[in-house]
Amino acid sequence: MSNLMEFQLPSAWTVNELLEHPDWIIKLTAEEIAELETALQEHLGSNVEYQDITKNQFPLPYLSKKLSYILDVIENGIGAVVLRGIPVEKYEPIEIKKLLWGMSLYLGTAIGQSSARELMNDLKDKGLKIGDPKSRYLNSRGAAALHSDGYCDLVMMLSIAEAKWGGESEIASSVAVHNEMLKYYPDFLKVLYEPFNHKLPDRHQGMMEDYYPLPIFANYQDYFVCTYARYLIEDAQNYTKAPRLSEKQKQALNQLDELYNNPKFKLTFRLLPGDLILINNLVVLHGRKEYTDEATTKRHLLRLWLSHPKSRPLPPEYSIPYRNTAPGSVRGSSLFVKW
Questions:
Q1: pTM reported for the whole predicted model
Q2: 122 — phi, psi (to 5°)?
Q3: Can you give the CATH number for the domain in which 185 is found?
Q4: Domain range for residue 240?
């Protein structure tokens, strides 16, 4: 394929390079924490729903500059940042949601995360196993393989409580893995630029089939794009009449997984309570390890999916999951994505 190229980008990092990068962990200052708490004060104890709070009602004149910088790092820099020091221990769950929502207003536009269109999800074990029809990754304690989330540009996850055992977060640079494949497995990389059929969880308006084609890697207008959720590819094979994967497609996926899980590329780490991780969904994959909770305290994260004004253009075939492909547009789909 003629458009195969090495992407020499800040987001093409190995684990060691990321750990040494000054933008990987950014700490809130005492002044920024005070500003955040002041903005939250008028919403404490009020009946206003978090999603009804507007930017004008949550002023962050100084912290907003740091959030703008982080957004640039997410889109044009390393693609993943941990913002450390949010005082989650001081507030009730609904108040933490208001706090996270207020910060998100300075980063982009929240989009629905399922057919129910909820804007914020609690990632907490509800006693369901992955594979249970009622289970989603977010409400089980099972491991989640590295993946992209559904049709968003930016994933935000705020850690509120840790598990007793396990539950470590994982991330890997899709750009670095792509470049490694180009160097050592170019024939497989060519295959990954071709469409793979993904299961359509809800029938998409105007589509006759219950699956849709989407390449894992794309080079569009010289922008790198990666969307990878292998479970959707396997679901298309198991639950639809999609054409069967070729042997070379299977080999390419297996090689891709092997590289993503190589310690050179996959960082495993713990999110501390008060850590907010922000991830470019088109550049960095994320996952987590299986975990066990305390009897009285459960591992708990809050998740938002955002579109943001600095986002990249997407190839036309991405209109099925993302709907809007223009740069800076508000994404969104009627698809239900179970992650």
A1: 0.93
A2: -90, 120
A3: 3.60.130.10
A4: 16-322
